[in-house]
Amino acid sequence: MQWLKPKLRFICLIFILISSACGQLGRDPNGYLTYCPCMGRFGNQADHFLGSLAFAKALNRTLILPPWVEYRKGELRSRQVPFNTYFDVEPLQEYHRVITMADFMWHLADDVWPESERVSFCYMERKSLQIEKNDPEKPNCHAKDGNPFGPFWDTFHIDFVRSEFYGPLHFDVHHSAVAAKWQAKYPPELWPVLAFTGAPASFPVQLENCQLQQYMHWSQRYREAAREFIREQLPRGAFVGIHLRNGIDWVRACEHVKDSQHLFASPQCLGYKNERGPLYPELCMPSKEAIVRQLKRTIKNVRQTQPNNEIKSVFVASDSNHMVGELSTALTRMGISVHKLPEDDPYLDLAILGQSNHFIGNCISSYSAFVKRERDSHGFPSYFWGFPKEKDRQPSKAHEEL
Ligand code: GFB
Description:
Distance between the termini: 89 Å
Radius of gyration: 25 Å
Bound molecules: guanosine-5'-diphosphate-beta-L-fucopyranose
Order of helices and strands: HEHEEEHHEHEHEHEHEHHHHEHEHEHEH
Number of helices: 16
């Protein structure tokens, strides 16, 4: 019988390992929350993610980490990229219970969320673009109508059997007792999964949720790629990361500045109640001259205040015009080189900007806002183009500075 002992021990060990692995994917009796990041591109989705994370925590439900929704030129359907391609899951667990959508769907959905019980949540009826689908007798969320709505849920073969309108409940868990109302109306025993047609969060991100960015850590692949670019491509020494948002969509978006108090991420510099002033066009679309001026001023300031860590280069991230030629010409006399990625990669751009010694971003852009929040969480300095507002300059003086 003695010979059985090691074998038994081995079997027990296997059993413990399997059950603890299963334990990680055990059912959460407090329920789950899932949503489609159906609005905007990365910056918008990241803002919404932080709000949804706070909302899931307030409702004490596990947050199902949605894939990131991406749009490629010439493709009619969005692409869904697993959450953990860009960010690690574990650091988020320090704040609240989360599970990737793939893990939830493959390991738990059959038990927790059978096909016959998949209900989509929206505030009120959403009309379908296909008029024949709108039945006045049966209002619906039409959660899979259009792009990216359909492709998103299709990624995991999810169809909804009916709709639930949750209005007048809302998501502002920081300024009201709404979380308790959600729990009372939708207890997890009866509603194990709340599936939202869009993110249960506001845009831009609420002030209270900005600090949740500290739990978003770049995946190893992006951490290493950023480190490698900085080490291999940039000269030794400090560098300024700059974000130039200047594509045609942005030119059009900036036209709204004149009729708005806030635009996209503008509260990040102006304050949520415009405590630091009203919107003005240069915040959205700084001129090339203003960009060069501010960059030179930043470099000179650092030379004076941190003589031991002089800026040696500039890293430019942009959706359109990187201005590498203009910037190189303007900065050669200062001995500063200008760099960009050889190929477009919005995520690697972000990861590098997060690591720069100094950062100048666009206050209106939620893409810049992601970098700013990440840097805040590390105590790194950030500034914005055209902020604070430059005093009216004499044209000849402005020219001289160039
Ligand atoms: O991220 P996002 O919502 O930021 O959308 P904004 C801008 C997208 O443009 C990014 C690309 O997700 C990237 O795909 N992009 C922007 C960049 N800057 C860069 C960059 O420096 N490098 C690279 N590689 N790609 C607003 C939206 O965009 O734009 C609004 O919030 C609206 O919903 C408006 O669509 C026109 O906040 O800047």
